[in-house]
Amino acid sequence: MGDLRLKTKGLNNAGFRKLQQTLMAAVPRQDRHQGRLPPKVMDEISAKCLLNHALIDWENLEDENGQPIPYSKDQARAFLTDPAYRPFFDACVYAATVVGEEQAAADEADEGNSQTA
Q: In sequence order, which ranges of the chain are alpha helices (DSSP H)?
């Protein structure tokens, strides 16, 4: 993905978690395998959650002619749902995971600093 930079919120943000839970709960029991959602369904849910509650912007994303591709929700949806762009999907998941972990660590540190003896 070269010099791609992604601006995301963490996967653990409230909007992401709420949409994820709602979409997972909406999957009929007969479409689950031993209670688990098939990977394709989980990818569809993850793409919707990333689109609506994690991915904010990108930089250095270019088309095949080297022209910048400006961020738009429609373009993000196309990339997140097209199997040919799986590395982009994976990069978004990774970036949002890192942001979420950093936010959780910062929250934990803040909590530790605010406790009184």
A: 14-25, 39-53, 73-81, 86-114
Per-residue pLDDT tens digits for 42-61: 999 999 999 999 999 999 99
Contact 51, 45 (CB under 8 A): no
Q: What are phi and psi of 112, to 5 degrees?
A: -65, -35
Helix (H, G, I), strand (E, B) or coil at 49: helix
Token pair for 80: 């997140």
**73 contacts: CB under 8 Å, gap ≥ 6:** 51
- Backbone phi, psi, residue 52, to 5°: -90, -20
Cα–Cα distance, 78 to 35 (Å, whole number):
29
**Which helix or strand (DSSP H or E) is residue 12 part of?**
none
